[in-house]
Amino acid sequence: MISFDNDYNRGAHPALLDALVRTNMEPCTGYGFDPYCESAKEKIRAACGCPDAQITFAVGGTQTNSLVIRAMLHEYEGVVAADSGHISQHEAGAVEGTGHKVLQVPGEDGKIRADVLKAFLDRFFGDDNHDHMVFPGMVYISYPTETGSLYTKAELTALHEICKSYHLPLFLDGARLGYGLESPACDMTMADIAEHTDVFYIGGTKVGALIGEAIVFTKNNMPAHFMTTVKRHGALLAKGRVLGVQFDTLFTDDLYFKISRHAMEMAGKLKDILVKTGCRIFMESPTNQQFIIIENEKMKKLSETIAFSFWEAYDENHTVIRFVTSWATAEEELTALEAALTALNH
Amino acid sequence: MISFDNDYNRGAHPALLDALVRTNMEPCTGYGFDPYCESAKEKIRAACGCPDAQITFAVGGTQTNSLVIRAMLHEYEGVVAADSGHISQHEAGAVEGTGHKVLQVPGEDGKIRADVLKAFLDRFFGDDNHDHMVFPGMVYISYPTETGSLYTKAELTALHEICKSYHLPLFLDGARLGYGLESPACDMTMADIAEHTDVFYIGGTKVGALIGEAIVFTKNNMPAHFMTTVKRHGALLAKGRVLGVQFDTLFTDDLYFKISRHAMEMAGKLKDILVKTGCRIFMESPTNQQFIIIENEKMKKLSETIAFSFWEAYDENHTVIRFVTSWATAEEELTALEAALTALNH
Amino acid sequence: MISFDNDYNRGAHPALLDALVRTNMEPCTGYGFDPYCESAKEKIRAACGCPDAQITFAVGGTQTNSLVIRAMLHEYEGVVAADSGHISQHEAGAVEGTGHKVLQVPGEDGKIRADVLKAFLDRFFGDDNHDHMVFPGMVYISYPTETGSLYTKAELTALHEICKSYHLPLFLDGARLGYGLESPACDMTMADIAEHTDVFYIGGTKVGALIGEAIVFTKNNMPAHFMTTVKRHGALLAKGRVLGVQFDTLFTDDLYFKISRHAMEMAGKLKDILVKTGCRIFMESPTNQQFIIIENEKMKKLSETIAFSFWEAYDENHTVIRFVTSWATAEEELTALEAALTALNH
Amino acid sequence: MISFDNDYNRGAHPALLDALVRTNMEPCTGYGFDPYCESAKEKIRAACGCPDAQITFAVGGTQTNSLVIRAMLHEYEGVVAADSGHISQHEAGAVEGTGHKVLQVPGEDGKIRADVLKAFLDRFFGDDNHDHMVFPGMVYISYPTETGSLYTKAELTALHEICKSYHLPLFLDGARLGYGLESPACDMTMADIAEHTDVFYIGGTKVGALIGEAIVFTKNNMPAHFMTTVKRHGALLAKGRVLGVQFDTLFTDDLYFKISRHAMEMAGKLKDILVKTGCRIFMESPTNQQFIIIENEKMKKLSETIAFSFWEAYDENHTVIRFVTSWATAEEELTALEAALTALNH
Predict the structure, then answer these.
(1) C96 with A91: Cβ contact below 8 A
(2) Interface membership of C128 toward B (CB under 8 Å)
(3) What is the Cα–Cα distance from C5 to C280, expressed in whole angstroms?
(4) I need a surface site. Which of A259, A319, A336, C34 has the fewest CB within 10 A?
(5) Pick from D193, D191, D95, D203: which is nearest to D152 by CA?
């Protein structure tokens, strides 16, 4: 079976496993106070061009999102997100579980438009009854979005300006951050992300790590006693080294960016193959997720040799399916996919 | 520096890392639906003598405790625990963060006595005003306890009988379960634990794994849609394989028990060394944590070469410190400790 | 100033105050165990044609909604509501404050259509990833809705059928229940409401009481130890008699229905006046709230003598405003309104 | 039946009912923006000698306590309370329901001693592991306490000094505040209470009101957007006037203090009767609750004519029972009680 179903179907990039093996028997202080966490943070600060960034590691996107949100919101506040946002739909109410509402605004191509945000906020604060409503307390976006789209630098800057004018922190979910930054369509660096957000996280789980996400507070705004909230959230690892060693490796010699670039090169070739073999593209997507519309019978046949993921029903006879590349995608896998699609479509 | 400060200062048992390396590039289904999770569950069921046990993996003790508790309690219920229990003191209010009170009862040597529990429950249900109070909805114990003590089989059975008579599930926190089961003072097997509890977890983080705990529901009582609660709790790993591979290895050829036994042998020798070198024992402890009372000046001197952990102030001039062995403790470390203590005390 | 701004701008119907005065110095057991609560429940059961109904009193709509919802949902569930629903918009996140998501579906005229609900539920349970999503655990509707519209008996029955087929309780928010039932457009009795819902509440605050809502569980489905959840929610009055005496009076000699009918007669006359005086009707509304579109300058002028409420901006020069009648509306007030509108429009 | 069972068994002081009747048909703005709320606040500010006090009304003690606590604590904080505190025992986990732990310290006679609090806080902040623990975020005391005891001015001042030195707000639960202030044992005024706390509430439910408590923030420290938290907590009455009118009356011509003084005079006479008739006093209590130890058989006999409340079992043959006076207690009731006790004991 050739796997294009998602970007978490393999373990870790071998360099990370090597580092875990190499450092395995060194005694380290627990709870993130080990030298690998320290070194990783230093390297991430450099990569962000943000020497004062405050960094904490956590495990997994849902945990990270609800942790950051609960720590930053006041009791009476909620978090603004696109209706298609991961926290709106696919995190099983983790945010609500901490007592806070997700305030959904209509997304466009997975993104929140600055004017839509402004209209929402103007309307809220202009409403005579807004004391009876959940206050917007921060804004959540994902980059790339859930469908793989990207904010341009101009779009992100505009969004951040609106947030600043309303004193709302902007939080960027970077579960697939590397794939976004290495997309040919991207006009930003990690330093731009750091500049135009208040907090973001660098996804490890989907970009080469076994587990792990790095939360970066960029404006000297880590909430007071954040470590206690991390603990309380069940997100504090006794063996913090597991995250430190991995992120230290990912941010040594630009490994994070190199393996992301590889995934994007594979995505480019994947796109070519889809077009060349006559697949019907569902929507343009500039990152590592590609979507096609396929007849149900062909889908069934394809699934015998290729793992892909179901996206949504298109009509009675067609389905939207998703192919995903990652740091682990090999050329031979693309070759096998091309052969399978060619056989299917001709 | 020789490390006796805790049982999570090293990475993973090499066999677990080997297995992670060996399986690393195999594509696996995410979220725990991989074959390694399945195999690990099967082996754990066998080790528990409980063929119908329902098993889920999570990451870390605090996460696991608050997850199990929130999933099992009704809205109006709290969890009974010893005042010294980990959830009572050292989990930063994780349980309360999910809306539930920890109902503290006085512990004795870290344990809840069956008669104390019975008296507490009788008093609650006998109180005319108990509708104005938090209902006891389950009972939490740890094995070994936070100070390393152990319930005897008779004590556990008695506690479980009280729980059953009040229809309360008994939850056993086994963060250090292996060290308890392999203690010379232990008169139980893992099957006994499974029989006399309703849910327990097998600690991996402190017993050879990088991360990971295995939650075992023993009475066909996994809460409905538990996976969704796991997700909502931020405890569902995309790469569930990381936990599956490790637990599969730990429960192959009794590795979990063998490495626990090693830790206990080291603890036995540690105890001998403490006595032989004239240390003043703070309290008897049958598992892998040993406590001495030491003069503050000596403590300072010792800390130059040996890592131990501060337990509590004893008096103005003395401190209680803790030495901990684990699966990773080497004979040479004990030799070095003996030399250091001999030099200190003579 | 003549008041048409809302239906809670006066105190209580005089008969309720009389009863409070009359019973004032009788010692009563607290917390709802007084004879007035008992008598009120008996009368409400009769009015509902539901001899086994389980009834509890609470204070205010937001409190009641979040109380019922937290008590009925499981940990992993949320409540389905129209996007215009009171719990979706105007209760400051009270439901989310108890850990549960409000799952918004598009409303039509403030109502959830049965086919829209069915499609939502089919899609949820048909989604391969629904374990990563908040489970629908109950359905919330309001009657009359926030804009005063009414479900027909056929619509309510159809909705309840869908709920039953998915084993979801249907909860009806009856903050203005009396005004709905006494509307000329209504084809249901309170017994029909009881039959075709699983729990509903009879609003007192807006229908003649100082404070108070009566929660009615109609299917022998009051959650276990509901009183403790009421207490925990801060909704248990020491002087439960205050609610008991009022509801006992409201349900003696059909007072609740009579005063509701009065409000609806006033609403009918109000509607006639609005038409007669040439106001531009914003939308048809069959209950005690009537909406017009008015020029901003005229609105300003009108506000000098008449209290109404701002609903929403219509365009740059016009506003939608709301007039509300209630049990307390007097003929002279209508006369004064007619004069004011006549002067304004001619 | 003569009622000494509690201080909420009658309705409201007649002057409050009169005011409700008198103002009943005046249209008022909702949600606490009526002139009666405004006037009541002004009078309370004067009574507190605190012209800048920020005041909000709520309904009932449990609601008020959990509301104030959730609004003032940060995510990672809990509230310190005596183990006998109402929030520790008898509010069904309302505080935990908002996500926060009640940090219990041993009380003495229902009170927290300043040195006990200091030791607790010193120990917490001195603990190397306190980042893994719930931070103390405020201190809760009750005045009078649950057993009727009173802090002296010196004790309250000392407690407040400790709180200030740790930057923790001190919250005083004054469910029976009037009875405390009018006790012969009291050496404080309401202004002293205001000065030496950061927030407190003036209990209405037990001191002459139908419902209602006045929350007083004394240090210009009302949490931002508190009204929204009140709404979200289900504590915002549409008819805020019901609270405004009652508190306005209570604080006109010192009525609150006068009716409290009456209750205390009745309590003094009650105490004399208990002694004179040979009852065995359980503990000295300076306010409106008096406790005796009584033989079970006599208790049964007494309960035929007198309503009192069960406090706790004393031994196999004796019970502690409580007699309570209030603003509503009449001389004739005391006469009847004396007759009953005389008959019983002689």
Answers:
(1) no
(2) no
(3) 18
(4) A336
(5) D193
pLDDT of residue B13: 98
What does the alpha-carbon distance between residue C22 and residue B16 come to, in Å, rounded to a whole number?
A: 78
ipTM exceeding 0.85? Answer: yes
User: What part of C 303-332 touches A (C-beta under 8 Å)?
Assistant: 310
B8 contacts on A by Cβ (under 8 Å): 30, 238-239
**Residue-level pLDDT, tens digit, chain C, 346 residues:** 899 999 999 999 999 999 999 999 999 999 999 999 999 999 999 999 999 999 999 999 999 999 999 999 999 999 999 999 999 999 999 999 999 999 999 999 999 999 999 999 999 999 888 999 999 999 999 999 999 999 999 999 999 999 999 999 999 999 999 999 999 999 999 999 999 999 999 999 999 999 999 999 999 999 999 999 999 999 999 999 999 999 999 999 999 999 999 999 999 999 999 999 999 999 989 999 999 999 999 999 999 999 999 999 999 999 999 999 999 999 999 999 999 999 998 8
Nearest CA in chain B to D74: B97
> Quick one: how many helices (H) and strands (E) in chain A?
14, 13
Residue C245: name the closest of C208, C280, C273, C282 by CA: C208
C100, C101, C127, C321: best to mutate for the A interface, most A CBs within 10 A: C101
Q: How many CB atoms lie within 10 A of CB A228?
A: 24
- Nearest CA of chain D to the CA of C301: how many Å? 20
As a whole number of angstroms, the distance between CA D335 and CA C215 comes to: 42
pLDDT of residue B1: 86
**Whole-angstrom distance, CA of residue C293 vs CA of residue B149:** 75
* Terminal C-alpha separation, chain A: 21
Contacts of C176 in chain D (CB under 8 A): none
| Interface contact flag, D74 A99, Cβ < 8 Å | no
Query: What is the amino acid identity at position A336?
Result: A
Q: Say what the pTM is.
A: 0.97
Tell me the residues of chain C between 186 and 245 that have a Cβ less than 8 Å away from chain B: 223-225, 227-229, 231-232, 236
The sign of the dihedral angle between the CA atoms of A138, A144, A146, A148 is positive
Pairing of the two strands A289-295 and A318-324: antiparallel
Query: Would you give the DSSP letter of residue A222?
Result: P
Q: Which chains touch A (3 or more CB pairs under 8 A)?
A: B, C, D
Residue B95: per-residue pLDDT? 98
**D30: nearest CB among C9, C59, C232:** C9
Nearest residue in A to C75, CA atom: A97
pLDDT score at B138:
98
User: Within chain D, which residues score under 70 in pLDDT?
Assistant: none
Give CA–CA dist C225/D87, Å, rounded.
Answer: 19
Residue-wise pLDDT for A318-334, tens only, equals 999 999 999 999 999 99
- The H or E element containing residue D46 is helix D35-48
Q: How far is A165 from chain C (nearest CA, A)?
A: 23
